[in-house]
Structure formats: C-alpha cells, structure tokens
Amino acid sequence: MSNKINSRNRRAKKLRAHSIDLKVNRLSVFRSGKHIYAQVFSIDGKEVIAQASSLDKSIKLDKTGNIEAASRVGEEIGKRAIAKGIKKVSFDRSGYKYHGRVKSLAEGARASGLKF
C-alpha cells in the first residue's frame, strides 16, 4: 500500500481508539470520489444507530460529491440521530483531514443539533 493510505489508516486507528475512551456514540464519515456517507455507531461499535448518505432518495441532490451534498448529509444524519435520542457523539473523520467535505458534513450535523 502507498504511504498515503497507510497514513490515513494510522490516523483513523488513533481517532477510533480515542472515541472509545470517550464512552459516547461515534459519528463516522466515509467519503469516496462520488459520494459521502455518515453513520452513528453505538458506544461498543457493534450496532449502527443512524445512517445517511448522498445516495439517499430523501435528500434529493443534483450532484453528490461536493460540499453542498456533504452539508445536506450532515443535516440529515443529525436529524436522524436526534430522532433516536442521541444528542452527543464523537466525530470520527476516519483519518481524513478536517476540511472540505468532511468539515461541511460536521458543520451540517452541528447545525441540526448534534454536539461533539
């Protein structure tokens, strides 16, 4: 594997270990070239409590791989998590840098009421 992938995996591993220590649910982000996905995991990480992605028909997007789409996915995951009774999460950016689509998703989730 390349250095870039190894570095991202190393950062992701450290972030997940830290979120386990916090003892709160984890909001995990995955981004691909065309889409962005978000999931809220239980404290032990065995169960997905809420999920949203740019593929969801309820979000209605023209383009799915941009900052606007990430913001809408963040708002939707926030609404779904709050509907399940979750108000506080730890943000797991999966080793991605906190800018662009990842930052937009986080801000959208905060705007809908999630705390992290």
What do you see in this structure?
- The chain is of the alpha+beta class and 116 residues long.
- It has one domain (3-111): Nucleotidyltransferase, domain 5, CATH 3.30.420.
- It has 3 helices and 4 strands, in the order αβββαβα.
- A 4-stranded mixed sheet has the order 3-2-1-4, sandwiched between helices.
- β2 and β3 (48-53) form a beta hairpin.
- α2 (67-83) runs parallel beside α3.
- The model has no long low-confidence stretch (mean pLDDT 93).
Compact description:
With 116 residues, the chain is of the alpha+beta class. The protein is built from three helices and four strands.
CATH-assigned fold name: Nucleotidyltransferase, domain 5
Biggest sheet strand line-up: 3-2-1-4
Shape: globular
Radius of gyration: 14 Å
Number of helices: 3
Measured by DSSP, the beta-strand proportion falls in: 15-25%
> Any idea of the CATH class?
Alpha Beta
